Amino acid sequence: MAEAEGEIPTVTNKNMDSAPALGRREVILKTAGVLSLVGLGHIFKTSALAQTTSTITATPEETEGPYWVDEKLNRSDILTDPADNTIQQGFPLMLGVTVSQLANGKATPLSGAYVDIWHCNASGIYSDMAVEGTSGKKFLRGYQVTDAHGSVRFLTIYPGWYAGRTVHIHARVRLFSGSQTTYDFTTQFFFDDGITDIVYQRAPYSQRPGRDTINTVDSVYNTTDCLNGKTSGSELLLRLSEDSNHAVASFNIVIDTSTLPDTSCNGNTRGAPPPGGPPTGNPPPQPPAT
Amino acid sequence: MLISAALAHADLLSDNASNSTDGTETASGDRWLTASFGTGGSPYKLQSVTLLLANTSGGVAEVDLYTDGGLQPESLLETLRPPSSTAADLTPTTFISDNATLSPNSTYWIVLKADSGELDWAWTADDSGTGEGFQDTWGLSDDAGASWYTYDVYPTQFSVNADVSGAPEPSTKGLLAAAGFLTAGILLLRRYRNQDGRG
């Protein structure tokens, strides 16, 4: 499983010393004995609990889908369409993404990774897609480069929905050596359906009811992680919270750059089209502008 | 003595300050930093928070305690008292609480602000920590806390000292009940022996 996303780390008790004797008087010792019998002896000792990291595996690869366009937009706020400065309306989402390098079973922050995200707007429409009537628009797309902490952040909106897919955000991680792409990984982030139901009660999402696909029946969510046999989507759920003003989400993408992404499993099949037909004419991936 | 021991003892609620440091995040101006910790089943009185900080630019640090807003700080509870000075190199730097009350089974956020200059807060690639309230979550705000981005790996380094105190929790009530029964038993035994001796 991707490290710590929605997973409660193992907690172990490192100090199981018995309760110390508290005095010579029999009544005190008897009291301590009674307390021990009723399971309260821990009150008399300093506890030291340790949180240990669970087993770390690489994040599942998922298809990039048909809506990828390498716009080369280096920006954290992806709400604005640079073509006309219009701003996408929706429930604000603060998304923090960390990229980690997996080596010898240990994950460490990976700096210098290009992280692209793209997703549909509140009406379920992707930008810069001829079939969607959005050619030339560039809303809800952008990339950031991870810092020494392995982190990037995006200001966006909670995605809307479109037929045949559960709510999701696409993500791509690329490494470059000069203009040469040395690593190329794509995946998708998923949302807790209960929180989506809450968000979708608000405008503008509420103006478009009838979401037809939730996580449990989504074809991408329910692919199998080749590494551990788990449902990939369960490992790709955002750590997510919402209040009346906005949602906050995070995800830690763990990649093993010593091997190529596993495209033979469920990943990176370059776009099984959703119902409605695939768009055409997408430019091939290009290195970001330096 | 027994009761007082049950109602108050110092506890290291969260600690990863001794992990190896792998970098720093900078607080300055509207750029605030945060990290969370939790409580277990007991109420606590916060004593102090110690951050691994470096003050490289003559900055003035402020450390605040916030309630949880769901993966982000929400409301200010207390501004902790700062030390008289902060070192230029990464150094454990302690901020004192006026015994702020921490509710059981709750998450709280430590927020670092630079009232002037800049402060560097160490972070570690080691996600482990000690204390029942340890959480490996940190975050930042670029707009003075209006919005937050939080992350659940590679946390900033700090420790939280607190006292178990306040209203008796259920387990403490059980302790007190057990002590009461024992005391009553002893008193009854003594009374019986005294009566037996007289007869």
Question: What is the CATH class of the largest domain in chain A?
Answer: Mainly Beta
Number of domains of chain B: 2
Unreliable spans of chain B: 1-7, 167-177
Please, what is the average pLDDT of chain B?
A: 86
Number-wise, the strands of chain B total 14
As for the number of domains of chain A, it is 2
**What is the CA-CA span between the terminal residues of chain A?**
33 Å
CATH architectural type of the largest domain in chain B? Sandwich
State the assembly state of the protein chains.
Answer: heterodimer
Q: Biggest β-sheet of chain B: count, sense, barrel?
A: 7 strands, antiparallel
Output mean pLDDT of chain A. Answer: 78
Features of this protein?
heterodimer, A: 290 residues, mainly beta, Protocatechuate 3,4-Dioxygenase, subunit A, 2 domains, disordered N terminus, disordered C terminus, B: 199 residues, alpha+beta, Jelly Rolls, seven-stranded antiparallel beta sheet, six-stranded antiparallel beta sheet, 18% helix, globular
Describe the structure.
The complex is a heterodimer of chains A (290) and B (199). Chain A has 290 residues and is mainly β. Helices cover 8% and strands 26% of the residues of chain A. The longest helix of chain A is centred in the N-terminal third of the chain and has 12 residues, at 26-37. Chain A is globular. In chain B, strands 1, 2, 4, 7, 8, 10 and 14 form a seven-stranded antiparallel β-sheet that branches. A six-stranded antiparallel β-sheet of chain B has the order 6-5-9-3-12-13, with no helix packed on it. Chain B contains two helices and 14 strands, in the order H-E-E-E-E-E-E-E-E-E-E-E-E-E-E-H. Chain B folds into two domains: 8-167, Jelly Rolls (Sandwich); 168-199. Chain B has helices at residues 2-7, 170-198, and strands spanning 9-15, 23-28, 32-38, 44-54, 60-68, 73-79, 91-96, 101-102, 107-116, 118-123, 129-130, 134-141, 149-151, 158-164. Chains A and B meet through helix 1, strand 2, strand 3, strand 4 and strand 7 of A and helix 1, strand 1, strand 11, strand 12 and strand 13 of B. Strand 2 (49-52) of chain A pairs antiparallel with strand 11 (129-130) of chain B.
